[in-house]
Amino acid sequence: MSIPGTLDRSRLPQHIAIIMDGNGRWAKERGEDRVYGHYEGVVSVRSIVDACGELGIGYLTLYAFSAENWNRPKAEVDALMELLVNTIRKEVDDLKKNNVRLHVIGDFESLPDICQTELNEAIDMTAMNTGLNLVLALSYSSRDEMARATRLIAEKVAGGSMQIEDINDKTLASHLYTSNFPDPELMIRTSGEHRISNFLLFQLAYAELYFTNVHWPDFRKENLYDALLNYQQRERRFGKTSEQIQSDKPGQVH
Questions:
Q1: Torsion sign across C-alpha atoms 56, 42, 137, 212
Q2: Is residue 162 part of a domain?
Q3: Which of 21, 23, 133, 223 is catalytic?
């Protein structure tokens, strides 16, 4: 599908975050094992990465595996880790060719050694790319991320390199996994759930939230365009009034 003419390319979010939900339900609806849905979900990842690259989106963060997902049945977790390894191996050449740079946030060391190896190689191979930044949230928990950041700050205060009065929201942000990324302006969750589920709780403070009933394995470029068109219909005020936003626009007489 071509990019809709009604989509304003000058008003796209710089950073999109997606909770890729519904793989298991999609598979069950088809009488298949849950793992089948995860494999099909990779096709959607490829489609959305391509779409974001075509649109010139700067950052795409995908909630690929939460810290809570370790509590799923062992067979499913093992299959997901195998899928992660195989997908990275298969896709890394295309990521490099398409100028996509890979990043990972989360408890990296909790991943199996083979996953860490493959991911590190892919991160190194794409490190010089200057297009879309693809951020995979793996073994990720936003609460754990904030607790980790708090410990890092506390260590600096205890060591004398930081004063308590110097701590503010920017201090916390600079100690998060995402310290080198802009905050997402748009968060998309598929499959009909209306929760954030411990995903980028600090970073999503001013994000527009978009929920769709489409299961992730069915989510394609046209669904992303729908989310972006919806995003462009919203007024982002950041605590200001509508009148202030209008008067702040270029070309307006104050």
A1: positive
A2: no
A3: 21
